Amino acid sequence: MSIKVEDNSGGLKRNHEELETGTKNVSTNNILNKNPPNYKKQIIVPVQAPKIHYVPLKTGLCYDVRMRYHAKIFTSYFEYIDPHPEDPRRIYRIYKILAENGLINDPTLSGVDNIGDLMLKLPIREATMNEILEVHSIEHFKYLEKTSNDNREQLLKETENGDSVYFNNDSFQSAKLSCGGAIEACKAVVEGRVKNAMAVVRPPGHHSEPESAGGFCLFSNVAVATKNILKNYPESVRKVLILDWDIHHGNGTQKAFYNDDNVLYISLHRFELGKYYPGTIQGQYDQTGEGKGEGFNCNITWPIGAVGDAEYMWAFEQVVMPMSREFQPDLVIISSGFDAADGDTIGQCHVSPSCYGHMTHMLKSLARGNLCVVLEGGYNLDAIARSALSVSKILIGEPPDELPDPLKDPKPEVIEMIDKIIRLQSKYWKCFRRRHGNLGCNFKESINDSLISKNFPLQTAIRNFQSKKLFDELNFLTLPIKNFQKNNMSTSTTNSINNKTTSTVISSTSTGTPGNSKEKNDTDDINGNNTTTETNHSSDSIVPPDGSTETKSSSINSKKLENSTTNIKTISPLNENTILCSPAIIRSKTLVVLVHDSPDLWTKRDVSTGVVDLSSTIIIDSTLDFIKWSLDRNYGVIDINIPQTLFEQDNYSSILAAQETLLSFWDNYLKYFPYIEKIVFIGFGDAHAGIVHLLGHRDTRSVVKSVINFLGKKPLKALVPLVDETLSDWYFKNSLVFTDKNHPFWADNENKKPRKKFGRVLRSQQDGIANLIEERFDEATDFILDSFEEWSDEE
Ligand SMILES: [Zn+2]
Fold it and tell me: Which segments carry the region annotation Disordered (predicted)?
C-alpha cells in the first residue's frame, strides 16, 4: 500500500511542475503565433517499478528451537515449580506471539522455513571459534566448551561458582547458536537481504565479558556480531551504534568497545549508586570510554527504580537520538532486553509495549533503516512476548501505537540525571553544546577558586560579593572557618586568638563530655578574648572570637582568602567567607542562623552557544530579606554559605560539608554564646541538611525555638534522633519545611503525609526557592515570632 502512495505523490508533483512550465510556453506561443494553445499535448511518464529498496524487503527473523536446550539442572522440586528466570520458554513465547498475530505463518510452531510474506526466516548457525575469539579469550571459550562434556556434578559445581550463570551439556551449543544467530541477523541486514532483522536468541550476551560469563550470559552475542561485521564489511559498515535498553548495564558489551571509536555504545539502565546488578562502577554515567574510544560510551543511568515510558522517551529525545544522529552509524543493533517492561519482577519498571515501538521507530530512522534487534534479558514471559511483538510490528512497517499516557512527565530525578549526562557528553557531542555552552568540556579540569584562576566559579564570586555587601553595608564580620578543619590548626599566622580558641575547643573535646566547670572555663576564655579586643577597638562594636581587626576590611579579607584557599582547597571549597555574622554577635540574646547554598540566578542563554548572557542575569538573594527582617528586630544574624559541589567533583559533598560545618559551629561557637536565649535556624536548599543533622546529633532544644527550611526540590531530610527519641516529635512541632509544588515527594501521592521525622512539610504553589520564599516569607516570620513568643505591634 505504501508503495502506491509514494508513487502517486511523486507523479503528482511532477505533473504539477510540467503544467506550470507548460502554461508559460503556451502563453508566449499564443502572442507570437496567434494559435490556440494545445492543451491536449500531455507529458507521459511511463509506469515504473518502484525505485525503493527498503519497503519491498521482508524483516528477518532468527529463531531456533535448539536454543531452548540450555536449561538449569533441577536440584529440587522448588526449582521445578519456581524455575530460573532465564527460562527456555522465553524465546518460544516470542515466536508464538508472532504467529498468533499473523506476523509469521507456522501453525505448529515447529520452525518451518517459509514463514509468510512479512518475515523471512534467517537460517541460524553456531558462531565459529574464530568469530568468538574476536571478543573473548581462548580460555573463556575452552571453559565453556568443556561444559559440553562435564558430568552432572561438575556442571552443578560450575553453576555454583559462576556469577549468576548455569550450565548443562547443551549450554555451549546454545551459546554458540545464540551468538551465531546475532551474527547472521546482522549480516542479512548489512547485505540487504532483509530490511531489518530480529534475533530471538538465548542465552543473552551483554553481561559476558571477554574473560568471563555472568548475569545469565555466556558469550557476548552483540559484541561478537559487531566485531565480525566491522571486520568483514569494512566498506559498507564503518560505524555501529549499539543501543542497549535492557534494564541492566551491558558491562560485557561496554568492555569490548571501550577503546573503540567505531562503535558507540549507549546503555539505559538502573544504577542507583551501583546497588543494581551488575553494580560495577563501569555502569556509572561518567564512564565515557577511553583512548580512541573516549566519548563513544554513554551510560544513561536511572537514579531510581520504577521508571517507565516518560523517562525512556525523555532519554531518547534528549540524549539518544541527537547523539546517534551526530554519530551517523551504518548499522544499529539493539541489545533488546525486555526486563524494563511493565510486569517484569526483576526490572520492576513500567515500559509499555508501545514505548518499545516508539523507541524502535526512532532508531529505524538511523543508518537508512539498517537495524538489527537482538534479544537480551526480560523475564516475564507475557511482557517479553508483548514487547517483542510491538518491536516486530515496527520493523515490518507499522507505525507505533499511541503511548498509554503520553502526557506523563518524567520523574524529576531522571530529568536531573539526563541533564548531568548531557553536560558531561557535551564535551564530545556538538549537538549538546547549544544547551550547555562549554560546561563539562574544556573547563572541567581547570576550574579553580584561586582569585587568579582564569576559570573562576561563579558561586565563589557571588559569595565574595555577598560578603562585601554585608561587610560594607551592615558591618558584618567573618567567623574563622579554620577552627572547623580537622587537624588543620595554625595554618594561618593572621590571628593568634583564633588559635587559642581552637586549642580550647580541642582540649574540651579531648576530655570527652565536658563537665560544667570545664564548659564554663571555655566560655570564659572566649569572653576574655572578646573583652580584650573590644577595648582595643572601641569604635567597632563587638568582634567575633576571631578577634582580629583585619576582618573588618574587605581588601584584607580578599588577601586572607588567597592565603587560605591554598590551604583549604584540597579539603573543600569552604573558605573564610563561609560564616559571616552581624556585629556584636556574642552579646546576642536572639539569633537567626541562615544556612544556604548559592542564591538563584535568573538568566538567559545565548541560543547558539549555550553561554549565559550576563547582561540579562540577576542574582536573587532571598536570604537578604531574612537578614534585614532580623536586624530590624535587633536579632543577631549568622549567615553560613555552603557552596554546591562543582561538577560533582572529587570528594566534596555539599551535604556533608553542611553537616560538618553546622556541628562544628555548634560545638565551637554557638553553645558558648553567653547570653543566648533563642535561636531560629533557617535552611535553604541542600544546606538545610546540615541543620537537620545538627538537631539530631546535639540537644539544642533549650535555645533553638524553631526551624524553617526552604527545600525547593531537594530531597526531604529525616531527623535521626541520636540524642533522644522525642526529638522527632519536637522537630515536627517546631519546624516548617517548604517544598516546591513539583517536589518529587508529591509526585507519587498527592495526599501523602510525610512522616514526622521530616518536620512539618508543606507544599508550595510554586517551584524555585526564590519563589517559595516570596510566597511563604510572612508565614515563616510569623512562625518564628510565635516560637520566640514575640509579636510585632500590628498583630
Ligand atoms: Zn537484564
Answer: 1-33, 487-560
Helix, strand or coil, per DSSP, at residue 267: strand
Q: Cα of 610 to ligand 1 centre, how many Å?
A: 37
| pTM of the full structure | 0.68
Peptide bond into 278 cis (omega under 30): yes
What is the rounded CA–CA span in Å between residue 740 and residue 727? 25
Using an 8 Å Cβ cutoff, are 593 and 627 in contact?
no
Residue 613 has what pLDDT?
84
Name the amino acid, one letter, at 9. S
> What confidence tens digit (pLDDT) does each residue in 532-553 have?
333 333 323 333 333 333 333 3
Catalytically annotated residue among 207, 269, 358, 596: 207
Query: What is the whole-number distance in angstroms between the Cα of residue 269 and the centre of ligand 1?
Result: 9
Question: Does 206 participate in catalysis according to the annotation?
Answer: no
CA-based R_g, the chain, Å: 34
Tell which residue, 349, 641, 715, has the closest CA to residue 478: 641
Distance 301 CA to ligand 1 centre (A): 14
The answer to whether 343 and 253 have CB atoms below 8 angstroms apart is no
Q: How far is the CA of 715 from the centre of ligand 1 (A)?
A: 29
Distance CA 697, CA 146 (A): 59
Q: What is the pLDDT of residue 552?
A: 34
* Cβ–Cβ < 8 Å for 584, 567: no
Angle of the 496-510 helix axis to the 516-536 helix axis, nearest 10: 170
Please determine, for residue 73, whether its predicted confidence score (pLDDT) is greater than 90: no
Q: What is the DSSP string of 133-173?
A: HTTS-HHHHHHHHHTTT--HHHHHHHHHHSSS----TTHHH
Q: Measured between alpha carbons, how far is 597 from 658 in angstroms, rounded to an integer?
A: 9
What pLDDT shows up at residue 458?
83
Cβ atoms of residues 303 and 271 within 8 Å: yes
CA 267, chain centre distance (Å): 13
Ranges 59-63, 64-68, 538-542: which has the least confidence: 538-542
The two beta strands, 636-641 and 579-581, are antiparallel
Using the mean position of ligand 1's atoms as its centre, give its distance from the Cα of residue 160 in Å: 20
Cell of 764: 508550595
pLDDT at 2 (0 to 100): 38
Contacts 24+ apart (CB under 8 A), 341-345: 341/378, 341/380, 341/383, 341/384, 341/386, 341/387, 342/308, 342/383, 343/380, 343/382, 343/383, 344/247, 344/378, 344/379, 344/380, 344/383, 344/384, 345/379, 345/380
Domains annotated for the chain, with CATH where assigned, are 1-52 (no CATH), 59-68+84-436 (3.40.800.20), 453-788 (3.40.50)
Distance CA 653, CA 645 (A): 6
Instruction: Give the residue among 445, 446, 439, 443 at the shortest CA–CA distance from 424.
Output: 439
Q: How far is the CA of 378 from the centre of ligand 1 (A)?
A: 6
The bridge status of strand 477-478 relative to strand 579-581 is: antiparallel
Q: Half-sphere exposure (CA, 13 Å, Cβ side) for 739?
A: 19
Q: Which helix (H) or strand (E) holds 554?
A: helix 554-568
pLDDT tens per residue across span 234-253: 999 999 999 999 999 999 99
More confident residue, 753 or 110: 110
Distance 518 CA to ligand 1 centre (A): 61
> The cell 507529458 sits on which residue?
43
